[in-house]
UniProtKB/TrEMBL annotation:
Keyword Secreted tagged: yes
Alphabetized Pfam families for the sequence: Phi_1
Alphabetized InterPro entries for the sequence: EXORDIUM-like
Subcellular locations according to the entry: Secreted
Main subcellular localisation: secreted
Keywords carried by this UniProt record: Secreted, Signal
Protein name: 16191_t:CDS:1
Transmembrane region(s): none
Family assignment from sequence similarity: Belongs to the EXORDIUM family.
Species of origin: Acaulospora morrowiae
Length: 172
């Protein structure tokens, strides 16, 4: 409750964050762009679904791209499953909408089974790392849900994926 309460009272340069989160629609797609994705592919995947009428162009929403364990992701600044400063299990960013003004927010969340020692692990006790810890339901979806939640709240408090529009306390 405190976690969502914090977000309910957050303000960004775009204004106050309000309302419940709703899943508007989901799709299952084939790997038409292959299994080695990058940031440009995220733009292409989302835009193709918008232009084909499967999703609306919604600058108030967040598009999530969730992948299967075969899919890798790499860019100059972030790499899925890499153990480094660039390594991540998910990230969020934005790109310009078709009007050239609004920005569409999205998040990539990879399947932790691609690298279980990196994205399915105990985060609290460093002595357990890199031992693979069994998740509550015994599958990678448990860990994906954790990353989805993390990226959702990061997107709400830092909509464009930059530090320049992130949530700030107006009293400071």
């Amino acid at each position: 409750k405190e976690y969502t309460g914090f977000v309910d009272e957050s303000r960004t340069k775009a204004g106050k964050v309000t309302g419940p989160v709703k899943v508007a629609k989901s799709l299952t797609l084939n790997a038409t762009l292959g299994v080695n994705l990058n940031r440009q592919n995220m733009f292409t995947i989302i835009n193709n679904q918008i232009h084909n009428g499967r999703f609306p162009e919604d600058d108030k929403g967040i598009y999530f791209v969730l992948t299967s364990k075969e899919v890798a992701y790499g860019d100059s600044d972030v790499v899925f499953c890499e153990v480094s400063d660039r390594g991540m299990c998910g990230y969020h960013f934005s790109f310009l909408a078709s009007d050239g003004k609004k920005r569409l927010k999205y998040s990539f969340v990879g399947d932790p089974d691609h690298c279980p020692a990196n994205c399915i692990r105990a985060q609290i006790d460093p002595s357990l790392i890199p031992r693979i810890v069994k998740t509550p339901h015994g599958d990678s979806l448990d860990s994906m849900i954790s990353v989805i939640s993390h990226e959702l709240f990061e997107t709400v408090t830092d909509p464009l994926g930059t530090i320049y529009d992130a949530w700030v306390d107006s009293d400071e």
